Amino acid sequence: MSELNEQTAQMEDQETSTGTGEDKAEPEKAEPEKAETNQAESSADKASEETGDDQDAPEEEKADGQPEGSEAPEEKADSVKTAEQQKKEDDEKYMRLMAEFQNYKKRVAKEKQDIQSFANEKIITELLEVLDNFERSLEHSSDADENYVKGMEMIFQQLKTAMEKAGLKEIQALGEDFDPAVHNAVMQEESDELESGKVSKVLQKGYKLNDKVIRAAMVAVAK
């Protein structure tokens, strides 16, 4: 009797284990089917999105009223106006630069000419005292030997000619109207021959070098 009960219990255990194995196998079969379903749904969604994008593009073009990437007439007009304004500004800048360059060339040329004209100013100014001394000597040489006086006059004339070639010019003063730009009045005196304001006497000669006063004439003025 006990053996019969044991066999019955073993048979029940085998049936129970068999049922459990079948239950486990069914979920394993269900998982591949679920993966295939998800993949199909994903493909359908992707196709739907692409179709929706293609449909939206013509609507956007219709809404804008012009192809994508083209400029509106107002924008083109503004671009042309901006380009013309920029060209005008560039032309004005070029003209200003050209005018400045021409002024620079003139200024440099004048400075160069001034350097050449007045390069000898210092030495000419120093030689003026030599001319003064020559003239004083000749004025008081009446008692000297005639040949000696002639020799001194020749040397004086040669020196004066050389200085005149360098641009030296004597300022006219005697009998002229007093001009403070070229005359230096050191005294006034009565004069029956000259009107008031005229130069009545030259105490020291004045000179210009290339129209530049390097020494004003020292004079007396009639009153």
Summarize this structure briefly.
Helix 3 packs antiparallel against helix 4 (146-165). The strands form two sheets. Strands 1-4-5 form a three-stranded antiparallel β-sheet.
Name the structural class: alpha+beta
What is the N-to-C succession of helices and strands?
Answer: HHHHEEEEEE
The main sheet orders its strands as: 1-4-5
Largest sheet: 3 strands, antiparallel
Total of DSSP H or I helical runs spanning 4+ residues: 4
Overall radius of gyration: 60 Å
Please give the alpha-carbon distance between the first and last residues: 180 Å
Shape: elongated
Q: Level of helix content?
A: 55-70%
- The whole-number mean of residue pLDDT values reads 77
What's the structural blueprint in terms of helices and strands?
Layout: H1 2-64, H2 73-118, H3 121-139, H4 146-165, E1 168-170, E2 183-189, E3 199-204, E4 207-209, E5 212-215, E6 217-222
Parallel strand pairs: 2-6
Antiparallel strand pairs: 1-4, 3-6, 4-5
Pfam families: GrpE (PF01025)
Region (Disordered): 1-93
Protein name: Protein GrpE
Explain the overall architecture:
The chain contains 4 helices and 6 strands; from the N terminus they run ααααββββββ. It is an alpha+beta fold and 223 residues long. Among the domains are: 80-166; 169-222, Head domain of nucleotide exchange factor GrpE (Nucleotide Exchange Factor Grpe, Chain A, domain 2, Roll). The strands form 2 sheets. Strands 1-4-5 form a 3-stranded antiparallel beta sheet. Strands 2-6-3 form a 3-stranded mixed beta sheet, with no helix packed on it. A hairpin with a 2-residue loop joins strand 4 (207-209) and strand 5. Helix 3 runs antiparallel to helix 4. The longest helix is centred in the first third of the chain and has 63 residues, at 2-64.
